[in-house]
Amino acid sequence: MKKVLILEDEVNIRSFVVINLKRAGYEAIEAGTGEEALRKINENPDIGVAILDIMLPDTDGFEVCRSIRANNKQMGIIMLTARTQEMDKVTGLMTGADDYVTKPFSPAELTARIDALYRRIGGDSMAASELLTQGPFVMNIRNHTLEKSGNRIRLTQVEYSILKLFMQNPGRALSREDILSAVWGREYEGELKIVDVNIRRLRIKIEDDTANPIYITTVWGFGYKWGA
Ligand code: CA
């Protein structure tokens, strides 16, 4: 059964999420503190998606997200944001989260986001070992790894999916909407800004000079283009 970790200190919200996860066919692993969440992830390496509350008694969800990402680039991470401030969303994405859900949320919305992340994690498992090579970059489709000039670059699932889309469409201008629907799914109703935040993060990882990007170039008023 597919495992999902829910880190939330408010028991009522956690139980609500657990019930809905079970109803959607997931096994729920519960944690009430950041420390407990990291321990359970250690004990359950097959957890595919983690849902992280931000306000916690011992730490905050961003720190937990950073700790997970230090060892694990594959896990899907959804932040539960209580506030609607843009900062929370951006901070979450910059620390390596894949998505966020704002409280109060509907169970259908949350499980749709989890389903989408799980699809992305498992989506390429049937593909044979395959390399995408462009310029200094070599992407291994089977292992979800990227090398630049022989050096491994660590990517989150979302960053990987975006870069794969670019490398499969070299020289083609992709709109933010194209990227959003290809990477997050057509049913995703989030903001286009999430694309820009991820592009900014990708540029930091792959460009020689982020002020003058040459691999992911901006197509003004439209979107982005892969120019390696
Ligand atoms: Ca909380």
Structure characterization notes:
- The structure is a single chain.
- The chain has 228 residues and is an alpha/beta fold.
- It contains eight helices and twelve strands.
- The protein has helices at residues 11-23, 34-43, 61-71, 86-94, 107-122, 157-168, 176-184, 193-206, and strands at 3-7, 27-31, 47-53, 76-81, 99-102, 131-134, 137-140, 145-148, 151-153, 173-175, 216-219, 223-226.
- The strands form three sheets. A five-stranded parallel beta sheet has the order 2-1-3-4-5, with helices on both faces. A four-stranded antiparallel beta sheet has the order 6-7-8-9, covered by helices on one side. Strands 10-12-11 form a three-stranded antiparallel beta sheet.
- Strand 6 (131-134) and strand 7 (137-140) form a beta hairpin.
- Helix 2 runs parallel beside helix 3 and helix 6 packs across helix 8.
- It is globular, with a radius of gyration of 18 Å.
- Mean pLDDT is 88; it is low at 123-129.
- Calcium ion binds at residues 9-10, 53, 55-56.
- Residues 9-10, 53, 55-56 line the site of calcium ion.
Give the structure's gist in a few sentences.
This protein is 41% helix and 23% strand. It is of the alpha/beta class and 228 residues long. Helix 2 packs parallel to helix 3 and helix 6 crosses helix 7.
Shape: globular
Oligomer: single chain
Q: Helical stretch count? A: 8
| First and last CA, distance | 40 Å
Structural class by helix and strand composition: alpha/beta
Beta-strand content estimate: 15-25%
**What integer value in Å does the Rg equal?**
18 Å
Biggest beta sheet attributes: 5 strands, parallel
Number of strands: 12
- Low-confidence parts lasting 5 or more residues at pLDDT below 50? 123-129
Order of helices and strands: EHEHEHEHEHEEEEHEHHEE
Bound molecules: calcium ion
Helix content: 40-55%
